[in-house]
């Protein structure tokens, strides 16, 4: 796998292939297996995503701490009633993101993509866009390879961990990966895919990681919802012809630099941000009372 | 720069909510149970730092017990591990503790087995579900469980390392990493060897038959995807 976005675009252009195809080839080479095997493994990953993004829409799922739960069910019911402002597509996507996040907080099975805390974004974006665009399962699997390819570049040049880079590195990267994947799904070029990833990250630059009571619940689940909406709308933005003024590689570098500048209090330690508001401290006390 | 797999980024498949506090905890406990050998009847967990502070909310406690029962981080029975441990009559104790200058997500396992012997194993969950075991019964070690690993305690005499590497050479197993630890010349030493391919029980047995060996174990990571 190449080390930068610029090289990724170049190698895809030279070979006349999308990012997903390059990512499959590289993974097969790296793991000394066939492309078919790599694709089948990703198909199992997709199936876990389908489950995690659905379960909490169909029944109320509560987290083990009791802090969150039941919201995916609410959003889905609201979407089904048909009186939404932003339409069924966005609302159902939000329900999917919330579902996977709630399943995660309830000790259900999820795919960390890239992390468990941001596990709602990629499934919600890929499955919702896939449904809207009438894509086949194979195309959804391919989209996960686009996302992974972009994620690898971010991981190599910055970080995907909230403890290192804040939420911008977790939910921000997840949304960037997802948006790039949708752009390729819609027929956009690798360059356009990276434009989408760059725009998504720029829009959450500086987002802190401040989990209430140190748990992956508040505000994480709703940040998964926000990341999902950003990934979907940014894909449209890019497909309309809008580009990122700052190239992807430079945005990733900026994100890493901002993460480095963040005080430890804002990097998953639960010592800053919303985690130390009076309400958060009260909730923490209630959760750990015994 | 690390060489990432697409499945490091879109993956792993795991039980939530946290790769470090849940998946990593399960993996640590599973490896600790393998090292301890034999049926465990009592498991005490000394929980350091963030593990001690948030273990209930993250299900770290359930994940640790699941690991002791041999479950993988993606096993959906993980959340019911307490009931499963009770069925098997395993006593479970959680104690928040200060383990000193170690990673914030560190746990010390005190595992009592059927024959009354006790194993002490300490390790950290270092992020992304990855782990580091760094102490076995007071002996410093360092291995991650990402590779097939051979742990050997042996009398520290000339030629032992070459005997081990000869066995692996005969079996066409490439050594990725190897470290030896000892308390003094000629005393018991410990070797943690990480290989590129599986160390089968047959190979482990061959190494066990080397004269100077006192205790030999192999730990092979499980390939994800069977559920």
Number of strands of chain A: 1
CATH T-level fold name of chain A = 2-methylcitrate dehydratase PrpD
Q: CATH superfamily name of the largest domain in chain B?
A: D-3-phosphoglycerate dehydrogenase, domain 3
Helix fraction bin of chain A: 55-70%
Task: Give the N-to-C terminal Cα separation of chain B.
Answer: 33 Å
Number of separate strands of chain B: 11
Strand content range of chain A: under 5%
Q: Could you give the order of strands across the largest sheet of chain B?
A: 3-2-4-5-6-7
Overall number of structural domains of chain A:
1
Helix content of chain B: 25-40%
Give the mean pLDDT of chain B. Answer: 92
Number of domains of chain B: 2
Gross morphology of chain A: globular
Q: Report the average pLDDT across residues of chain A.
A: 97
Describe the fold and architecture:
The complex is a heterodimer of chains A (290) and B (227). Chain A is mostly helical. Chain A contains 13 helices and 1 strand; from the N terminus they run αααααβαααααααα. In chain A, α2 (19-31) crosses α3, α5 runs antiparallel to α6 (121-132) and α7 runs antiparallel to α9. The longest helix of chain A is centred in the first third of the chain and has 24 residues, at 35-58. Chain A is globular. With 227 residues, chain B is of the alpha+beta class. Chain B folds into 2 domains: 14-137, 60s Ribosomal Protein L30, Chain: A (2-Layer Sandwich), CATH 3.30.1330; 149-219, Alpha-Beta Plaits (2-Layer Sandwich), CATH 3.30.70. Helices cover 28% and strands 35% of the residues of chain B. Chain B has 7 helices and 11 strands. Chain B has helices at residues 6-9, 19-36, 49-54, 60-68, 81-87, 160-170, 201-208, and strands at 13-15, 40-48, 91-96, 105-113, 118-127, 130-136, 139-143, 149-155, 175-182, 188-195, 213-219. In chain B, β9 (175-182) and β10 form a beta hairpin. The two termini of chain B are 33 Å apart. At the A-B interface, α2, α3, α5, β1 and α7 of A face α1, β1, α2 and α3 of B.
């Amino acid at each position: 796998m190449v080390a930068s976005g610029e090289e990724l675009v170049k190698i895809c252009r030279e070979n006349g292939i999308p990012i997903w195809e390059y990512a499959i080839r590289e993974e097969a080479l790296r793991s000394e297996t066939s492309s078919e095997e790599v694709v089948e493994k990703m198909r199992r990953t997709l199936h876990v995503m389908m489950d995690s993004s659905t379960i909490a829409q169909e029944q109320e799922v509560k987290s083990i701490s009791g802090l969150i739960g039941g919201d995916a069910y609410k959003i889905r019911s609201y979407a089904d009633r048909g009186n939404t402002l932003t339409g069924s597509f966005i609302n159902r996507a939000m329900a999917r993101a919330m579902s996977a996040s709630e399943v995660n907080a309830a000790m259900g099975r999820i795919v960390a993509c890239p992390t468990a805390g941001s596990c709602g974004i990629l499934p919600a974006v890929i499955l919702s866009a896939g449904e809207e665009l009438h894509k086949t399962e194979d195309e959804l699997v391919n989209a996960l390879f686009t996302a992974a390819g972009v994620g690898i570049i971010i991981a190599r040049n910055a970080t995907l961990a909230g403890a290192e880079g804040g939420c911008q590195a977790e939910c921000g990267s997840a949304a960037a990966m997802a948006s790039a994947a949708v752009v390729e799904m819609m027929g956009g070029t690798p360059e356009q895919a990276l434009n989408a990833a760059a725009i998504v990250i720029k829009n959450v630059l500086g987002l802190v990681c401040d989990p209430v009571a140190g748990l992956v619940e508040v505000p994480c689940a709703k940040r998964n919802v926000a990341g999902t909406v950003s990934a979907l709308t940014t894909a449209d933005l890019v497909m309309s012809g809008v580009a990122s003024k700052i190239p992807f590689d430079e945005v990733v570098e900026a994100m890493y630099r901002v993460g480095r500048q963040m005080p430890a209090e804002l990097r998953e330690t639960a010592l800053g941000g919303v985690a130390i508001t009076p309400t958060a401290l009260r909730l923490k006390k209630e959760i750990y009372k015994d | 720069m690390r060489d990432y797999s697409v499945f490091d980024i879109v993956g792993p498949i795991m039980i939530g909510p946290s790769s470090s506090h849940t998946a990593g905890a399960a993996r640590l406990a599973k490896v600790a149970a393998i090292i301890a050998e034999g049926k465990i009847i009592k498991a005490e967990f000394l929980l350091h730092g963030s593990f001690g502070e948030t273990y209930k909310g993250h299900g770290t406690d359930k994940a640790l017990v699941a690991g002791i029962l041999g479950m993988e981080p993606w096993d959906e029975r993980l959340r019911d591990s307490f009931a499963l441990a009770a069925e098997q009559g395993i006593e479970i104790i959680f104690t928040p503790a200060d383990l000193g200058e170690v990673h914030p997500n560190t746990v010390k396992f005190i595992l009592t087995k059927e024959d009354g012997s006790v194993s002490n194993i300490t390790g950290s969950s270092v992020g992304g579900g990855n782990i580091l075991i760094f102490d076995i019964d007071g002996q410093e070690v360092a291995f991650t469980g990402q590779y097939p690993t051979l742990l050997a305690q042996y009398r520290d005499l000339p030629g032992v390392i070459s005997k081990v590497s000869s066995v692996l050479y005969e079996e066409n197993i490439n050594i990725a990493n190897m470290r030896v630890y000892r308390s003094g010349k000629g005393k018991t030493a410990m070797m943690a060897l990480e290989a590129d391919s599986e160390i089968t029980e047959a190979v482990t047995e061959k190494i066990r038959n080397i004269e100077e060996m006192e205790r030999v174990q192999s730990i092979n990571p499980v390939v994800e995807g069977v559920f």
